[in-house]
Specification:
Blueprint (H helix, E strand, L loop, with lengths): L1 H32 L2 H9 L14 H8 L2 H9 L14 H7 L3 H9 L14 H9 L2 H9 L14 H8 L2 H9 L14 H8 L2 H9 L14 H8 L2 H9 L14 H7 L3 H9 L14 H8 L2 H9 L4
Helix pairs in contact: 1-2, 1-3, 3-4, 3-5, 5-6, 5-7, 6-8, 7-8, 7-9, 9-10, 9-11, 10-12, 11-12, 11-13, 12-14, 13-14, 13-15, 15-16, 15-17, 16-18, 17-18
Length: 313
């Protein structure tokens, strides 16, 4: 008799647990679909507002990702926890930022979400998502909410370095105005100026120089912004860097100069520009090669003629 009672109790408890589990799963799906009425009904029926699925994601995360503002408002009013982390260490705010859900981002910030939360890769919402994507509206929301703009990701990139690398000029200007450090370097030694010079982002180069970026910063291999601009063949950037004090004849760890980099890539006009700025054509790299010998090897006849007319031996 006692055994029967125990078995019945276990069955009842199991059944109740199963019903609760089904309610929770249905809640997460309803929130994802933006079905406010179902969300309300499920919570009234006993669903847990902070229940998670197999990926540790809550109803709030799923609906924030989809941008269902009304559902977000209701879930927050019912006690949804904005600080829960899923299996990727994303919060509801992280998911909203990933989809540029501006209205939802405002709601989650208002609910005191952590704007500097780091995911499993060490990235923050502004660090990897908004600045990299060039979403100035989202960047502004996060900055206004106190996001730290000089944090680094696992590779040492800051929001400014990402924005400069990707060519997002408006975001670069916003970050500079918010006092981003323009001279921070990533793990390989690239600064925002080095990347923008390499990528040919002239407006960004000018903004960074005006903000005090070091024109002679070196990466781990000794490359400077001028070397990168020269190998990219960008006359305007080369000119801007020279005008603001870039060292023309400095050599990287391989002995390469900006002139050699321009020669290697066949940028005749930049070679001419550097020679006019007193680039030394007779410097040799670690293997004894000069700008002239490199040009001759590649059969760049116009460049050979320019170098010889500049006195190259």
């Amino acid at each position: 008799m006692i055994r029967t009672i125990i078995l019945c109790s276990i069955l009842i408890l199991s059944s109740a647990s199963l019903r609760a589990s089904n309610l929770d799963a249905d809640l997460i799906e309803a929130a994802k679909d933006g079905n406010l009425q179902s969300v309300q009904a499920l919570l009234e029926a006993g669903a847990n507002v902070n229940a998670v699925n197999d990926e540790q994601r809550t109803a709030l995360m799923r609906t924030a990702f989809r941008g269902h503002r009304d559902v977000v408002v209701y879930l927050l009013a019912q006690g949804a926890d904005v600080h829960i982390l899923d299996n990727l260490k994303h919060t509801a705010l992280t998911w909203a930022v990933r989809q540029r859900q501006v209205e939802v981002i405002d709601l989650l910030i208002g609910a005191e979400s952590d704007v500097d939360v780091r995911d499993s890769e060490g990235n923050t919402p502004i660090l990897t998502i908004a600045a990299k994507a060039g979403w100035i509206d989202v960047c502004k929301q996060l900055i206004d909410a106190g996001a730290k703009i000089n944090l680094r990701d696992k590779d040492g990139y800051t929001p400014l370095i990402w924005a400069a690398f990707k060519g997002h000029h408006k975001v670069v200007r916003l970050l500079i105005s918010a006092n981003a450090d323009v001279n921070m370097q990533n793990a390989s030694g690239h600064s925002a100026l080095t990347w923008s010079a390499q990528q040919g982002h002239e407006k960004i180069v000018n903004s960074l120089i005006s903000a005090g970026a070091h024109t002679n910063a070196r990466n781990k291999h000794g490359y400077t912004p001028l070397m990168r601009a020269a190998e990219g063949g960008n006359r305007a950037i080369v000119g801007a860097l020279i005008k603001t004090g870039a060292h023309i004849n400095v050599q990287n760890r391989y002995g390469h100069t900006a002139l050699m980099r321009a020669v290697d890539k066949g940028h005749t006009d930049v070679v001419q520009q550097l020679l006019k700025a007193n680039a030394d054509p007779d410097l040799s790299d670690n293997r004894g090669r000069t700008a002239l010998s490199r040009a001759e090897t590649k059969k760049y006849t116009d460049i050979v003629r320019l170098l010889k007319s500049a006195g190259a031996k």
